[in-house]
């Protein structure tokens, strides 16, 4: 019986190392988690984290099973997704810049309190999915770490590992920034924090939509 010519532990450690660097680098997912935590509540932030992690599952599976090949075959699809994703991030930014656009009466996505959990989860998911470059990064990650003809179980294990790392990191961020001290700082500086977050989202969205 043939034995696999790779070491699964080494592969998973490579995936974990590359993905950890990507996750801890501040980006839209990080700033969404922070803004939700300090402007809303810890449960809302954790719902947002759950949405972000669900997005990681989608991109991980897509990257492993070759979404990049689809983008190469249909470049217009990649360009269209970039425009849609950039537009969504700009939309979030504009909502935060508007008076009352943060977590006062309504959250940043315009939902009343009873559905904030659902809105936060959806915002986390869509913010993660709004950047098709993630698919390209995940594809590169797998190309750098996976053996040739990697079995499906190894890909699924890698996606599970990536999702767990995302969940743990962003949950830690959510718990830290939803602490009482951060909440008091937010209450004193809410408008400036919301404006800063809004500008960051708009900048990310514009860069995504216009980058070639």
Q: Could you describe the 3D structure shown?
A:
- The protein is mostly helical and 212 residues long.
- It has one domain (28-210).
- 78% of the residues lie in helices and 0% in strands.
- It contains nine helices and no strands.
- α2 packs antiparallel against α3 and α2 (28-39) packs antiparallel against α6.
Short description:
This protein is mainly α.
Number of strands: 0
Secondary structural class = mainly alpha
Number of helices: 9
Major sheet size, sense and barrel closure: none
What proportion strand? under 5%
Spatial shape: globular
| End-to-end gap | 48 Å
Mean pLDDT: 79
Secondary-structure element sequence? HHHHHHHHH
Supply the number of structural domains: 1
Radius of gyration: 18 Å
| Low-confidence spans | 103-115
| Helix proportion | over 70%
